[in-house]
Design brief:
Layout: H1 3-13, H2 19-40, H3 43-51, H4 58-68, H5 71-74, H6 84-91, H7 95-107, E1 111-115, E2 123-127, H8 129-150, H9 155-169, H10 171-174, H11 180-191
Antiparallel strand pairs: 1-2
Helix pairs in contact: 1-2, 3-8, 4-6, 4-7, 6-7
């Protein structure tokens, strides 16, 4: 462990985090940072667009995915309907950007507007037959690649990995309410920052 990480482990130990846990956190963070950098390049999405010869960019593909709404990805109720605001929420983007993306998909004949079955005053978005065919092809591509990779894992490794990954995936939500020892230490950390590196109070 590097000297600065040893100092970090010592500091965290004062708020109840064992050195071996800090070591594990450092390893996990390094893996996540490498994953984030690869993910930011959207390697799999770009490969799908290229190999399937799709006339879409990544943002448009994301919007189409959000409109088709695979339930395993977004966790919506089966009967839920998709509006522009829904696309914005699913993708974490501004509603105006979601509107521009969906308008472009409508112009390409991949998405259509329809009347809500739940509220006739509401306009919803649905994939056209062409849009659904693209979505099915992209999903088949994605899971062929991922399935091929996972085929090299043992059934036991897969059974162990999936619940642990699901458990880990919620950690950022759980940090919203930090225990008192951590909030106290964060206040101390804030006081160590140089004047130009922190916002003024008030």
């Amino acid at each position: 462990m590097a000297e600065r990480d040893v100092k970090l482990a010592q500091r965290l130990h004062t708020v109840g985090i064992a050195p071996e846990v800090t070591g594990a956190a450092l390893e996990i963070d390094a893996i996540l940072q490498r994953w984030r950098r690869r993910f930011s390049k959207r390697e799999l999405g770009l490969r799908a667009i290229d190999d399937l010869r799709l006339d879409l960019d990544l943002a448009e593909l994301d919007a189409l995915v959000a409109i088709c709404a695979p339930q395993n990805e977004f966790g919506d109720e089966p009967q839920s309907e998709t509006m522009v605001a829904t696309v914005a929420a699913r993708l974490g983007i501004d509603p105006s950007r979601a509107s521009r993306l969906t308008t472009g998909l409508i112009a390409r004949g991949l998405v259509r507007r329809a009347v809500s079955q739940q509220d006739a005053r509401r306009t919803i978005l649905e994939p056209t037959e062409d849009g659904a065919r693209i979505m099915d092809a992209v999903r088949a591509y994605k899971f062929m690649v991922l399935g091929d990779f996972l085929s090299g894992w043992t059934p036991e490794e897969i059974r162990t990995f999936i619940p642990l990954l699901e458990r880990f995936s919620v950690w950022s939500d759980q940090t919203a309410r930090l225990p008192a020892p951590l909030t106290t230490e964060i206040t101390r950390l804030r006081k160590t920052l140089p004047a130009g590196g922190a916002k003024k109070a008030g």
